[in-house]
DNA sequence: GGACATGGAAACCGATCGGTTTCCACCGGG
DNA sequence: CCCGGTGGAAACCGATCGGTTTCCATGTCC
C-alpha cells in the first residue's frame, strides 16, 4: 500500500513545503522567481514539483489558494465573538494596519498577483479574484447586519479602502497609523451604521 | 554639425518613439516585456536603444518619467479655471472614473510599476514614488485651500481612495460608477470641507 | 561627390529559465 | 532480504532574454 505520508523530519510533505515556500517567495519576489530558487527554498526537487503540478503557474495558483484559509482566519473576526457588526467590520482594518506595520509588508498578495499577471484568465488570477470577492462578501453581509443604508455600496467602499491602504502601505508610500480604521469608520458613519450596542 | 533632429517621417525621434512604445508596453504587459518586443513596437533597433539608455530598466524609468506631465495635465484640473477647491479635488476622481471606464484600463501605472518591481530602490520605483508623492501634494494643498480640518490627513485619505479605486478597477474587481467620487465627497464632508461658493 | 554621423536589421553571445530526465539513496511491507 | 515506490541531486535541453556587435542603407554638410 502506498503510505499516506506523515510529517517528514524536514517539515511536512514535499507538497506542503513547496506551497509554503512558494507563497512566501512569490510574495517577496514576484511571479518571476525561478523554479530552481523555489525548489531550493522548499527543499524539494524540480522532479517532485513537476510531478505534483503541471507548471510553475499551477504552483503559484495552488500556493495562493492554500494560503487563503489562514489569512482569512487571521483577518476576519472570530465568528463566536460577541462583537457587534460595526466592530466586526472595523476589526478587519485593524488587522490590516497591524500587518502593514511589519516593515517588509508588501501589500495584499492577491492584489499583487493580479497586478503582476495582468491576465485575468490566468489560473492564479482567478484564485486571487475569488479570494477578494470573498472579502467583499464578508463586508456586504456585515454591512447588512450593521444596518447600512446600502450594504452593497458600503462593501465596495470598504474594499477600496482595504486595497488602497494595503497597496500604499505595501509600496512604502504610507504607514497607515490609524488611517485605514479612520476611513472605514467615516464611511460606516456616512452609511448610517450606528455604534454597536453594549456587548451582551 | 550634428543636426538637432527634426520629426522623422516614421514619427518623432527614435528616443521619443522608444519611450512612447515603452510606456504603452510596460503598462500593458508589465516589466517583463522583452527588449526585442519593445524595439519592434517602437520601430527602433536594439542598437539605438542601448546607445540611448544603459539598460531596460533605465528605459522603463525614463518612460514613466516622460509620461507624467501628460497624465498630470489630464488628471489635475486646469489651474486657470474658476473652480473652487472642493470641486478641484473631486475633479481628479472624476478623471479617474473616466479612465477606469476604458475596458482595458489596468490601474495606475506608477502603482503597477512599484508593485511589480517590489524593490523601492529601483530607478523606476523612485520615479513612480515621486509621481505619486506629487499627487498627494496636490491633494494636500487643495485640502488646505478647501478648509479641511487636517489637510495632511485628508490628502492621505484621498490618496488611499485614488489608489484603491484605481487598483480595483484595474484588476477588474470593480467598475467604479461614481464610487470614487462618492467616497471622496464623503471624506471631504467628514473633514469639514464646505461646498464651494458660487463661481465668481 | 565624398566624408561622416545616424540608425535600422539582424547575427551573435553568455546567462538564465521552464521543464524533463537520469540516477541513486532511502523507505516500509512481504 | 529483497522490492517497489518516493523523492532529492543534478545533468540536461531548447527557448528566450538582456545586451553587444557587425553591416549597410540612408541621410546631411562641405
From TrEMBL, chains A, B:
Gene3D superfamilies assigned: Tetracycline Repressor, domain 2 (1.10.357.10)
Keyword entries, A-Z: DNA-binding
Annotated organism of origin: Streptomyces edwardsiae
Domain HTH tetR-type: 12-71
Protein name in the entry: TetR/AcrR family transcriptional regulator
Domain of life: Bacteria
InterPro entries listed in its UniProt record: Homeodomain-like_sf (IPR009057), HTH-type_TetR-like_transc_reg (IPR050109), HTH_TetR (IPR001647), Tet_transcr_reg_TetR-rel_C_sf (IPR036271)
Pfam families: TetR_N
Residues within the DNA-binding region(s): 34-53
Amino acid at each position: 500500500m502506498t503510505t499516506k505520508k506523515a510529517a517528514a523530519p524536514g517539515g511536512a510533505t514535499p507538497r506542503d513545503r513547496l506551497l509554503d515556500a512558494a507563497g512566501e517567495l512569490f510574495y517577496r519576489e514576484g511571479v518571476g522567481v525561478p523554479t530552481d530558487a523555489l525548489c531550493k527554498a522548499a527543499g524539494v526537487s524540480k522532479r517532485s514539483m513537476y510531478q505534483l503540478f503541471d507548471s510553475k503557474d499551477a504552483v503559484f495558483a495552488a500556493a495562493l489558494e492554500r494560503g487563503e484559509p489562514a489569512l482569512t482566519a487571521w483577518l476576519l473576526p472570530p465568528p463566536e465573538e460577541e462583537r457587534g457588526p460595526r466592530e466586526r467590520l472595523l476589526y478587519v482594518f485593524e488587522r490590516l494596519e497591524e500587518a502593514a506595520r511589519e516593515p517588509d509588508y508588501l501589500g495584499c498578495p492577491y492584489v499583487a498577483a493580479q497586478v503582476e499577471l495582468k491576465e485575468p484568465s490566468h489560473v492564479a488570477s482567478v484564485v486571487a479574484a475569488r479570494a477578494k470577492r470573498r472579502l467583499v462578501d464578508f463586508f456586504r453581509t456585515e454591512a447588512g447586519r450593521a444596518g447600512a443604508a446600502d450594504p452593497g455600496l458600503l462593501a465596495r467602499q470598504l474594499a477600496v479602502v482595504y486595497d488602497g491602504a494595503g497597496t500604499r502601505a505595501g509600496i512604502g508610500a504610507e504607514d497607515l497609523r490609524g488611517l485605514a480604521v479612520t476611513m472605514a469608520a467615516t464611511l460606516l458613519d456616512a452609511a448610517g451604521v450606528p455604534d454597536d450596542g453594549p456587548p451582551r
